Amino acid sequence: xxxxxxxxxxxxxxxxxxxxxxxxxxxxxxxxxxxxxxxxxxxxxxxxxxxxxxxxxxxxxxxxxxxxxxxxxxxxxxxxxxxxxxxxxxxxxxxxxxxxxxxxxxxxxxxxxxxxxxxxxxxxxxxxxxxxxxxxxxxxxxxxxxxxxxxxxxxxxxxxxxxxxxxxxxxxxxxxxxxxxxxxxxxxxxxxxxxxxxxxxxxxxxxxxxxxxxxxxxxxxxxxxxxxxxxxxxxxxxxxxxxxxxxxxxxxxxxxxxxxxxxxxxxxxxxxxxxxxxxxxxxxxxxxxxxxxxxxxxxxxxxxxxxxxxxxxxxxxxxxxxxxxxxxxxxxxxxxxxxxxxxxxxxxxxxxxxxxxxxxxxxxxxxxxxxxxxxxxxxxxxxxxxxxxxxxxxxxxxxxxxxxxxxxxxxxxxxxxxxxxxxxxxxxxxxxxxxxxxxxxxxxxxxxxxxxxxxxxxxxxxxxxxxxxxxxxxxxxxxxxxxxxxxxxxxxxxxxxxxxxxxxxxxxxxxxxxxx
Length: 516
Prior knowledge:
The chain is an alpha/beta fold. It is built from 15 helices and 26 strands. It has a five-stranded mixed beta sheet, sandwiched between helices. Strands 16, 17, 19, 20 and 21 form a five-stranded antiparallel beta sheet that branches. Strands 2-1-10-9 form a four-stranded mixed beta sheet. A hairpin with a 2-residue loop joins β22 (419-421) and β23 (424-426). α1 crosses α2 (38-54). The termini are far apart.
């Protein structure tokens, strides 16, 4: 047993293990009305770790978690870490082609999934995948229920990882059209969780509701941060049924409510919201895109006792900045300053720091900065560049910012054409590849257009072959069948032809100018 008085978190799984030792009978997770204690989650994840070790998982191996929000997904990520492996949370709406790419690219040895995903899994092949562990499939010889509940633990797994070891790979859209894997060490994730819980003042008295997918790092970190401080996390599938979520919030006396603009927009549209008692709510956090000033005003009126945090981040370092609630009124469009134990600044094209008012690229320096992109040394070199000391690497975010005279940061634009929609990065190339696969489409271009709620919405421009009878509805349905939900265009416009540059390439600049 570890001595918690002398212990500090160095590995992500220590969040669970330490809280299980300090608060064994405390409720760690509430899911669909069921309560799970820290001791319960810890013992189940330990059993899974033994099953993984028995199936050949070793230090540094990658294990995919292809599930929606569930208690099994939480058990899975900690069980993987306990087995000295690295977890990969894969969105449950991912189609077989992309799933196959991720499994092959990462060379995942094991996948943990749900019975509801069996059709997608069945149409996916990977020579590296040795074992699939099913949740909710009693006939499986590696039934997740049996592994986590009934298997006896023989001996103990030697914990060999240190904080520099790989903890997770998060696949995010890349400019080539294929997703790229952001490699995060235990140190990266522990550092980020520590900094965020510090400025949010999280304690073991908090009750945090999470309606965001665990495959979205903002949703994942609600579990990690909650378990780090010994809090209780109320895990929901989504915010699809707002009234039910609000009912749970009042019943469980929630103190923390993380969200994104789409969630808060739905919330503010509810006519009978005043009937709910939110008196226990201590804070609200927003990220993914800036909240409209009108929404900030209404949220503060609706939750007068709650602190509202506006934040900015990206997968490559989890979180970059936050705006203290006290500054929200005087600087509502700012994303604040760097979080604790991190330095951020703006540079010009030669890497020189920029003065207030000048626009340049945002650079992040801190232990939360990723290890790099999996198997993509050239892409890594573009993002991680030499820092202050020999061997140090800084994260060049690809985002353009400016600061004011007080040192507060303001987002201006992205340098590349990656679309930031609903908090997720979307590669136009990846969506265009799907569009070109639809018979009848001869030209396609995908762009991000301003959206008050999403930050950016996805718009597809297409030109059809002569005689093709495709409609906008046909195209949207095809996209929904072949893309993850957040990648499906919000708008489709059919044109006779798409504008070209003098070299014959489709010009997105001309396209957007002509169609403004």
